[in-house]
Amino acid sequence: MSTSRRPHRYRDDGLVRAGRALRLALLVALALLFLVPFYLLVRNGLATEQEITSPDWTFFPSDLRWGNVTELFEDSSVPFARSLLNSALIAVATTLGTLVLASLAGYGLARIPYRHANKVFYAILGTLMVPAAVTFVPSFVLVSSLGWVSTLRGLIVPTLFSAFACFVFRQYFLGFPGELEDAARVDGLGYWRTYWRVVVPNSRPVFAAVGTIVFIGAWNSFLWPLVIGQDRNSWTVQVALSSFTTAQVVRLHELFVAAAVSILPLLLVFLLFQRWIVAGVERSGID
Predict the structure, then answer these.
(1) How far from chain centre, in Å, is Cα 233?
(2) In whole angstroms, what is the distance from residue 284 CA to residue 51 CA?
(3) 2, 40, 178, 259: which one has the fewest Cβ atoms less than 10 Å from its Cβ?
(4) pTM (2 decimals)?
(5) In 10 A of CB 105, how many CB atoms?
(6) How far, in Å, CA of 261 to CA of 258, rounded?
(7) Half-sphere exposure of 58 (CA within 13 A, CB side)
(8) Using one digit for the tens of pLDDT, what is the confidence trace for 112-151?
(9) Phi and psi of 245, rounded to 5°?
(10) Residues paired with residue 245 on neighbouring β-strands, in sequence order
(11) Nearest one of 55, 45, 161 to 104, comparing CA atoms
């Protein structure tokens, strides 16, 4: 009886191995397809204008022009180094501010008894349905009246609170183990100290996931910095990138090398927090 079943088992093992090989080949193909934009940035960033626009495509330029990187930072018409610094300051400040404000709001809505908590939560969710274009002009008028045009305050403060981040934190804290908070209250801790000493240290994955999303959004923001950052010294990296393509001239090699440099901080953030990001996405249900 065992002899008659052996060919079926071998056939099943062969199908399993074939399925694994097919999935592996598909994943490799998708990974290569995902890396194509990065390859184009590096390839065109280290090429000349003629090689970029040439109809005869080459996998890599015949002569890698590393001087394009030096030219980018020495270009007096575009303060790219200052733009990188501005974007870093804005992204870090926005991320930290959003994490603090949204997590406090989410914790309060989830854990502090208040009869109007659900109404406040639904009001916050309602702001997600308001198009950004509706609030853009009033926000600009307010920032302008405060004298915050071309300042970091004008670029950071209006974007500090995120309704989406508040929603994620609230949903996460609803499932937070109540036993830990009960133990903290037995030790005499109130809501504030329970939040800082118990909840935050045990919620690192969701903080990492939300923080990464907010950081990427702040780094890639374009329209608000374009309107508020009217002075060149207040440009962000996205505004600086747009200046390489104008009605008069298109500097393709600088545009590509600048784009390659600008994505390095995002890759670094993802690599540093990758483990916590995955865990946070699993626990909070972020799609």
Answers:
(1) 24
(2) 47
(3) 2
(4) 0.84
(5) 21
(6) 5
(7) 15
(8) 888 888 899 999 989 988 888 888 899 999 999 999 999 9
(9) -125, 105
(10) 250
(11) 161
**106 within 8 A of 172, measured Cβ to Cβ:** yes
Q: Do residues 172 and 283 make contact, with C-beta atoms less than 8 angstroms apart?
A: yes
**131-165 core/surface letters (b: 16 or more CB in 10 A; e: else):** eeeeeeeebbeebeeeebbebeebbbbbbbbbbbb
CB 78 within 8 A of CB 244: yes
Identify the residue whose tokens are 């090989």.
21
Nearest to 218 by CA among 269, 156, 276, 277: 156
Q: What is the pLDDT, as a whole number, of residue 285? A: 52
What is each CA distance from 9 to 4, 5, 16, 90, 150, in whole angstroms? 10, 7, 11, 60, 71
pLDDT digits (tens, 9 = 90+) for 177-196: 888 888 888 888 888 888 99
Task: Tell me the per-residue pLDDT of 31-49, one tens digit each, with 9 for 90 and over.
Answer: 889 888 888 888 888 888 8
User: Rounded CA gap, 135 and 31, in Å?
Assistant: 39
DSSP letters for 127-176: HTTS-HHHHHHHHHHHHHHTT-TTSHHHHHGGGS--HHHHHHHHHHHHTS
188: tokens are 């005499």
| Residue 251 CB-half CA count within 13 A | 16
